[in-house]
């Protein structure tokens, strides 16, 4: 493969993602960051310069497994020290697999502040994909608040708790409309709709009639679960999270934060018309307007309004509708199957809890906080810096009632690590539960760094040991993000074959910020020398100083 070089300068910029000007974290003066495009087998070299005046930064390459380069995973306090203002860090790693990915900030809530972009890996030369298409378009979905992430973080760590609320706008490729539908915008209806600003101009996908297009769709939302539909066009899902899936044709797709899909569409509809692409909110009372883009059939003008009604978003709390979509995503024939048995099962109970009166999320009663020395360094050089860790639990109490608010909601903070035996097969059961308030349980899309996993089971209510016999070991999809539905559970299986320290967390930014995550490690002794620049903070900085030759 080739070496592909990029230079990213991360800094605050004024930008108008939804036509209202705000402060955004941009890359090279733009929002969203540049789309990286490479081929499988290429080496990506991204020189990241931090031009934020007073805060650190890191960039995580979501979905890239970082075989042999765990220090390039871009998770602050886990894989590296945050890059200080005015400093540069070079991420260098191999893109081992074609697919639709993205990158984003992984420090504080910088992702929600706008630090993200697309990362598309094409098949290697000479390789074949299991489907054909004539052209492609890319849609990176996100959600946007007018309040700064600093105000959001303050609210989350206040008594009384102040939730971030629903986003003002859903963005498509960083563009949306606040208080103005795209239709109204095109017709110039109201004042806010008359604003003309190229930063928030509508997304138009130009297509030729009677062709097949691949749409790459990824979600880096801070909070929102989304549903995407295209007027009059069905979609055939062919890829999920960088893995091929058994083609399945649907009228709309659900997409959770951290997920990506490729769908194929055929432009065989009446070509004198354009068509709506609409994106609505799932799983939360929708207070945010449906986002719209235009599928523009050549040679129509892109501003020709589609003549049909908007596609209808399924009802926000129709969870059986959502489940039926998610359960339909299965591995393409020929995908490697999981080992038939696992060596270890870890059951993780997700609860909303309190610590000293502050609302948190906890996993087996531990709310994740990040240490000042990156875990990768503590684990690798533990003997030199005197690191020790208490083991987190592999299960939660048998009598825990997932249908009721926790009886004792108190939990504690921790940054403990699940140490996995190298090359062992691990099952993780993610168990959802009721929140602190009665009759509420939320959606949580969990994302694992450093791995793809097989999603071998889903269910409602509390997971029972006997359900192991019903796991799907025949065609479970390989993914890097799995959703747990309200009051439900999901089971994943993976092989701990990637030396490193890996985050595993809910991809909802405020949930992670409130502790909804945990950390796994494996094969740490096998890691080659970690670049010093990645470890120049906390006790590893001390160690590096002591080791300096005179
Ligand atoms: Cu895309 Cu740890 O996240
Ligand atoms: Cu969550």
UniProtKB/TrEMBL annotation:
Coiled coil segments of this chain: none
Keyword vocabulary terms for this entry: Copper, Disulfide bond, Metal-binding, Oxidoreductase, Repeat, Secreted, Signal
InterPro entries per the UniProt record, alphabetical: Cu-oxidase-like_N, Cu-oxidase_2nd, Cu-oxidase_C, Cu-oxidase_fam, Cu_oxidase_Cu_BS, Cupredoxin, CuRO_1_AAO, CuRO_3_AAO
GO molecular function, one term: copper ion binding
Location of the protein in the cell: Secreted
Annotated EC: 1.10.3.3
CDD domains: CuRO_1_AAO, CuRO_3_AAO
Catalytic activity as recorded in UniProt: 4 L-ascorbate + O2 = 4 monodehydro-L-ascorbate radical + 2 H2O
Cofactor(s) named in the record: Cu cation
Subunit structure: Dimer.
Family: Belongs to the multicopper oxidase family.
Protein name stated in the entry: L-ascorbate oxidase
Species for this entry: Vanilla planifolia
